[in-house]
Amino acid sequence: MIQKKICMVGVYGTGKTCLVQQFVHSIFSVKYLSTVGVKIDKKQVRIGDQDVTLMLWDLEGRDGTRDVSASYVRGAHGIIYVADGTRPETVEQLGDLRRIVVDEIGETPSVIALNKFDLKDQWKLSATDESSAGGADFHRLRTSAKTGEGVEAAFEWLAEKTVAGTEKGS
Amino acid sequence: MTVNFESSDNSPNGADRAAEFDALRRLLVGPEQSRIDELSDEIESRELTSEELAEKLPEAIALRGSRDDQLGKSLGPTIETALRESIRRDPQEMAAAIFPVLGPAIRKSIAETMASLVRSINSAVEQSLSIQGMRWRVESWRTGVAYPEIVIKHALVYRVEQAFLIHTETGLLLEHVSAPELNVPDADLISSMLAAIQDFVRDSFNPNEGAMLRTFSVGEHTVQVEPGPRALLAIVIRGQAPNDLLIKQQDALETIHLEFASQLADFNGDATAFVPSRPLLEGCLETVLSTRKPRGKAAWLRWVIPLAIMILVLAGLWIRATVRWSRALAALRAEPGIVVVDASRGFGGWHVSGLRDPLARDPSQVLAAAGITPRSMTGKWEGYLSLDPQLVSLRARHAVDSLRRQIQSDRILFAPGSSQLDQTALAKLTSIAVTYRSLEQEAARLNGAVRLELQGRTDPSGTDQTNAALAANRAAAVAGWLESSGIAAQQLAQNAIATASPIVAQDSAERARINRSVSFRATFTAGQPRKGNR
Q1: What is the pLDDT of residue A72?
Q2: Which residues from A are below 8 Å from B187, CB to CB?
Q3: I need a labelling partner for B132 at 20 to 30 A (CA). Which of A82, B307, B363, B493 fits?
Q4: Is the CB of residue B163 less than 8 Å from the CB of residue B177?
Q5: Sign of CA dihedral B463, B468, B472, B478
Q6: Contact at 8 Å (CB) between A85 and A116?
Q7: According to the model, what pLDDT value does residue B455 have?
Q8: Which positions ≥6 away from B298 have C-beta within 8 Å?
């Protein structure tokens, strides 16, 4: 059984928690986020012929980049950056977030989830905005925590990358 | 030849010049050149001699080993083959070589197995036999809760229910063990959460010092976290954990760091490498029941009760024997005519020695009368005359009877038709009078009285009338003599039997002779025994 630590990174209100909420296996209530400040969920995916358990780390959102602490991302095998497609500033902050993460753990398999895609009438991102979000060569996906669109794809893509990374590394 | 030289001189093109230069060089350094070629051949074709190799080999191995692990990889198969071959050829040699390593390991394993077996047998016996154990069984049966649960509920001091081995950096679960009946499906989530909480606490309170949340309590559970450089070991304890549990936990974590150093360093999400660490973690799981503490007392009690019973039985037997012994001695001592001088008891039986009056009862009869039958008794008795009143009177009775018999065996004979005492009769009467006085004395000792009846007889010749008178005269003659010799008249009774009950004899002449006589009948009347007189 392969396990991977995946961190949800994104500023407050981008829907990190909602993104994992619906399809993960969870034994801790959302209350943990406000009480302990952190919540771990588990998602099992199948990559090729092996099961991979993703341990999804979700921190209580505060404001700005303080949401990402060093110890939180330490040891992470993959990062899901979450931005809110209806709030372009959350996309702009992705660059800062990424720097913090890379400073701490170096380059790591990552994916950007442009969330809240169900709110199509409030979607503020142009095609260029989307393709350049977070900087160059990023895998990006439109996601909706409400409808579930793109969510599974995002996790599976990342899981595959982390496993591939392991295999290459060994 | 000359032509050649000529042409080269005359046509000085490049090829010719090169040839010339070559020739010149051969002339100048020819011998050195050939020597260089030889050396170069020698170097190329050269192989290390064994001696040179022996010189260089250790250094070479060390050098290559420091560079990469290729040496290990190439030597691996060879060493394996060599080992296999060595074992095949002489397994004894290899066994001897690895014995120092295997021996202690096997011993330790056996010792631990035995210890745990003994522990479980002990606790099973203790719990099933004790009153407490019975009570718990009843409670288990009554409430429908499993017996082990009841035991834990009542007797638990502490119990390590779970152990998590957690990768420090990622918070991922490396290995998890739990008590057999406990089902923990989300150990991985708990593990990550524990790690996350560690981060949270560290960030919140002490971000610079790498401090840790070491212990926290939840209800009756305590989580004790022991950090290591690459992994942390968290144990979940129910109840009150002792201090040495922490040392055990640290030991386990240190051993894991030692044995799984490379796996921990290279961990990339695959926890299968840590399956072998399970026994180490299981070593931390333990249940300590309070019955273990009073076990010493219980064991002591279990020995004391039979011991006490045994002591009581022995003491009882001893007391009984002693009582029997003292009763026997008392009976012997109380027995008239027996004086116990020395008495002892041993494995061989009873030994009694002392004095015994010939008239006294046999000692074993005395004991039998007292209801005591000794297994064996040896007696050593010296004869003596007892002054015990009972024996004195007994002895007196014997004397009285003897004297009476003596007197009664005699008779005074008369000539036919005569009542005159002849010389023989007088001599006999003198003797009888002496005997009678002795009888009187003995009777007096017994406080009794004697009477002497004088029975006068005749032979059948003559008439009854004359015979009766003759018989009366004969008795009176004897009585008169006895009175004159000092015997009180009232002690003497005269009975003229004549021919009424003759003394029998075969011959008629003899019968007639012995019936012309006075015979005696001494009677003794016992009086009240005198008290207080020995």
Answers
A1: 81
A2: none
A3: B307
A4: yes
A5: positive
A6: yes
A7: 92
A8: B126, B130, B291
Helix (H) or strand (E) holding B366: helix B363-369
Annotate B430-457 with DSSP letters as a single string. HHHHHHHHHHHHHHHHTT-EEEEEEEEE
B160: β partners: B237
Q: For residue A74, which residues of chain B lie inside 8 Å, CB to CB?
A: 169-170, 199
- B268 and A53: CB-CB below 8 Å? no
Q: pLDDT by residue (tens digit) across A67-125? A: 567 778 888 999 998 888 898 888 888 888 888 888 888 888 999 998 888 888 888 88
Determine contact, residues A8/A151, Cβ cutoff 8 Å: no
Other Cβ atoms closer than 10 A to B118:
10
Residue A111 and residue A54 in contact, taking contact as beta carbons nearer than 8 Å: no
Strand order in the sheet with B492-498: B411-413, B517-525, B449-457, B492-498
- SS3 state of residue B103: helix
- Largest interatomic CA distance in chain A: 47
Nearest CB partner across the interface for A3, out of B168, B173, B204: B173
Question: Sign of dihedral through CA atoms B105, B107, B109, B111?
Answer: negative
> Looking at this protein, which amino acid is placed at residue A4?
K
Cβ of A2 and B193 within 8 Å? no
Please state, in angstroms and rounded to a whole number, the distance separating the CA atoms of residues B469 and A84.
Answer: 175
Task: Report phi then psi at A145, rounded to 5.
Answer: -65, -20
Helices (H), B384-534: 389-408, 423-445, 464-484, 508-515
Other Cβ atoms closer than 10 A to B342: 9
In contact, B449 and B443? CB cutoff 8 Å = yes
The residue of chain A nearest to residue B167, with distances taken between CA atoms, is A75
Phi, psi of B356 (to 5 degrees): -140, 125
Summarize the confidence of residues B434-460 as an average pLDDT: 88
Provide the residue count of chain B.
Answer: 534
Closest residue by Cα to residue A161 from A133, A137, A145: A137
What's the pTM value of the predicted model, to 2 decimals? Answer: 0.46
Strands (E) across A19-169 are located at 38-47, 50-59, 78-84, 110-115, 139-142
Distance in angstroms (rounded) separating the CA atoms of residues B385 and A74: 119
Say if the Cβ atoms of B189 and A72 lie within 8 Å: no
